[in-house]
Structure formats: C-alpha cells, structure tokens
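Quick one:
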Amino acid sequence: MLPTVYATLQASPAVVALVGNRVFRHGSAPQDVARPYVTWAVAGGAPENGFDGACADAFRVQVDCWSDSDAGVETLAAAVRDAIEPVAHLVAYVADERDFQTQRFRIGFAFDWILGR
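Output:
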C-alpha cells in the first residue's frame, strides 16, 4: 500500500554501507541517531483510476539525506538517488541546505512512485 522506500534502500549495498538501517519514515529521525541517515515521508498521492476501478496508487515521496559533513551528504544523496531511480521517477531536488539548529547538511529529493494494485 505504501512505497517501498525502506526495502529499496536496504537492497542497495552502497546505501547500507553508509547508513546501515538508519532509514526513518514520517520525515523524522530519533533525537540522538547516529549520522548519516535518511528520512522519508509521503507528501501526497492519488489513485490512478481506470474504467474498472482503481488500478494503481501514485505517491509523491520526499526523501531527505542527512550528514554532519557536506561531502558526506553528497555521497549519501548520490547513493540514495541511484538506489531509488530504477523503481521511481525523480521529479525534483527539494533541499540543499544546512539545518540551523542541528548544523546537519541535508539534500532532499521528490520521487513519484506508482504502485499497481
């Protein structure tokens, strides 16, 4: 029913080498999580309807990469992009910034993910 972001990232040796299982849903991570890590959330979606009813669900998913270093976040973002692009469409780069409070670097993407029913 939901996009398989976690499973897709865990299937990537490059991503696992960087973050292990530190991939968190709902757009947030635990307070003292080790870095780097990835967060993701469904930003929107809609059913794709045919004449015989819904045939697929389309989701817009935001995926954010977090690291304590600029080089680290770039490396993680490239690995995440490469892992997800074979199964979803990269439609936007939504963030390239440093968080004011935590001073962590973030690169974010929006992917369109279509799941057949």
